[in-house]
């Protein structure tokens, strides 16, 4: 058996289309263009690539992109001052400070400085708390993308309803593991949070109808860890050497061993082309939501 591929690229393109329509409507009905401010500190090449695609897709969706590229030696006070300036700017609806920040900067303090109403990354403790409480707020982008893709996998069977499924989240990071576990609980899944100290991880995995792999270990989850027919969402973005492509070349692999998993799973996300593109589409969707909420407008349904 070979699993159905969950096409994150196509799903993300569809979400961006609804974002573009919402942006167009805001421009037409309300006379403004939602604005997303992206702050990049330093010259990390991966971060530069991510920020470039966020900027490009923001514009493609008919929104305004405000870019601040700062040198590596930027100090914390100056970065916080910039965030405060963006908080106060009425033309800025969303603020994203690209992570990781240089080591001399306390990223918690920077995130805390972001106005929770503009926190389109969903990283501010106020927004994290809202998920815990099951209250509306800005939901982190990668976890949001994981849930959308899991629903997509069950579209035919349950109409996308995840109620009652056993979900296993592998990894407990603030950015992905913890919030995605809470979101799945809010979708009425029975959630297990597994991590490096989990006893008999393989057995726990084998019980799950939905596996979210977010540990950052290349190809860790093997096909024989999976319940036949399970839905597998691979959050991993690991760059590994690919000598077969030439000397010094690399390729991207997930936290799931795709070749063996695809034989057992019912549905699986590829890497690349799975969760990654959804992360950016959800960021753009959050910018629309933040823009509407801040102005007292109804928040559109963005699918
Ligand atoms: N404040 C902040 N918010 C973030 O959301 C954030 C961040 N910092 N720092 C870094 C991580 C990583 N991240 C990705 C976004 C898109 C892809 C993506 O589109 N990946 C493509 C392939 C990209 C490639 O080829 O390298 C894919 O999976 O198909 C991946 C990773 C957002 N992050």
Automatic annotation (TrEMBL):
InterPro entries: Aminoacid_DH-like_N_sf, NAD(P)-bd_dom_sf, THF_DH/CycHdrlase, THF_DH/CycHdrlase_cat_dom, THF_DH/CycHdrlase_CS, THF_DH/CycHdrlase_NAD-bd_dom. Keywords: Amino-acid biosynthesis, Histidine biosynthesis, Hydrolase, Methionine biosynthesis, Multifunctional enzyme, NADP, One-carbon metabolism, Oxidoreductase, Purine biosynthesis. NADP(+) binds at residues 171-173, 237. Residues 6-121 form the Tetrahydrofolate dehydrogenase/cyclohydrolase catalytic domain. Its EC number is 1.5.1.5, 3.5.4.9. It comes from the Bacteria. GO terms for cellular component: cytosol. The keyword Cell membrane does not apply. GO terms for molecular function: methenyltetrahydrofolate cyclohydrolase activity; methylenetetrahydrofolate dehydrogenase (NADP+) activity. GO terms for biological process: L-histidine biosynthetic process; methionine biosynthetic process; purine nucleotide biosynthetic process; tetrahydrofolate interconversion. Pathway: One-carbon metabolism; tetrahydrofolate interconversion. Residues 140-294 form the Tetrahydrofolate dehydrogenase/cyclohydrolase NAD(P)-binding domain. It catalyses: (6R)-5,10-methylene-5,6,7,8-tetrahydrofolate + NADP(+) = (6R)-5,10-methenyltetrahydrofolate + NADPH; (6R)-5,10-methenyltetrahydrofolate + H2O = (6R)-10-formyltetrahydrofolate + H(+). Homodimer. Catalyzes the oxidation of 5,10-methylenetetrahydrofolate to 5,10-methenyltetrahydrofolate and then the hydrolysis of 5,10-methenyltetrahydrofolate to 10-formyltetrahydrofolate. Belongs to the tetrahydrofolate dehydrogenase/cyclohydrolase family. This is Bifunctional protein FolD. It comes from Breoghania corrubedonensis.
